[in-house]
Amino acid sequence: MTVADLFEPLPLLHGPAMRNRFMMAPLTNQQSEPEGFLSDFDKEWMRQLGQGGYGLVQTGATIVEASGIACARQPGIFSDKHLPGLTEVANSIREGGGLSAVQLHHAGHRASPYFGGVPSPASSRTLPGISALSTAEVERIRDSFIAGAKRAEKAGFDGVAVHGAFGWILSEFMSPILNDRTDKYGGSLENRARFTIEVIEGIRRECGPNFQIGWRLSIERYGLRIEELREMTAEILDRELIDYLDLALWDYNQIIQEGAFRGRTMLSIFADLPRKGVRLGAAGRIRSAERAGRLLDEGCDFVLIGRAGILERNCPVLVESDFEHESPALPVPADFLRRGGLSERFISHLRGWGDFVRPGSR
């Protein structure tokens, strides 16, 4: 395949097709107002992305319960009061010609009390002095994910992306190290996967036939077992429970160092699964047109753009006009981001990434 193939439309199981193979990754940017209300900075950021030529644009991690917050200025979808701002964002993305999705998030044991969060672990051993969620509490959070999806649909989004990565609550429940439960949500792989499956099944049941569902999965850290994740993913793909799988890889080229898949890339062990009509994409330091095109050769149907999209909100447009395009080298001066349209809130957040904003730049 060539870079030109990135601009072929991509049909999905439900709803309209992506106009091309570029998806904007869900990026935390800490721009929202207290209680999860979208700020003018949020809206402008999403407007810029909506005009950037992407096939689909996801919001950053949007909390389904106020108590599930992980960081400052995180957007929310746990109240109907959030609908006006969400509707405005959905409309602005649609006006730019792309599809839209809200990433649904709950921090689980990583919820931050500093920002009003309530740590909600799967196991009583994870955090000293904090008891595991009861079965009823797990079911409440499950229903909050589903309610968040219904609000996203009401606001006019084409779908939602369920955040099952990075040790947040759904990922946490999948981990045999972080989940030692003895109820129906713990023990066997089937039980540890139940939370995720019930969230996805509930969204499909409660939302319309054209509503799209994505699922973000990470493989590394938090005691996750790659063999188990592959088995769980195979079932989800075979049942066509989702429209697309988003593999959140730190680097899609990284090689597995041990176990049954030693010597293979992280991407390859998922790319070779039968997936029927489900689409597969990956994120992981995709900074050039050539590298994005190479992902299609390695089994992906689409690519997720993160850092490259922060540096240049219209990254797909630039690639379409120059098949040899590469993103600016990091770190960049803060003023480069400022001139490009990023808010001071976003730039302040990026300074914490370590390798993004040039130290000492103003």
UniProtKB/TrEMBL annotation:
SUPFAM superfamilies in the cross-refs: FMN-linked oxidoreductases
TM spans (from-to): none
Sequence ranges assigned to domain NADH:flavin oxidoreductase/NADH oxidase N-terminal in this UniProt record: 5-322
Entry annotated with the keyword Oxidoreductase: yes
Entry keyword set: Flavoprotein, Oxidoreductase
Coiled coil: none
A Pfam family hit: Oxidored_FMN
CDD domains given in the database record: OYE_like_FMN_family
Domain of life: Bacteria
Protein name: NADH-dependent flavin oxidoreductase YqiG
Organism: Streptomyces camponoticapitis
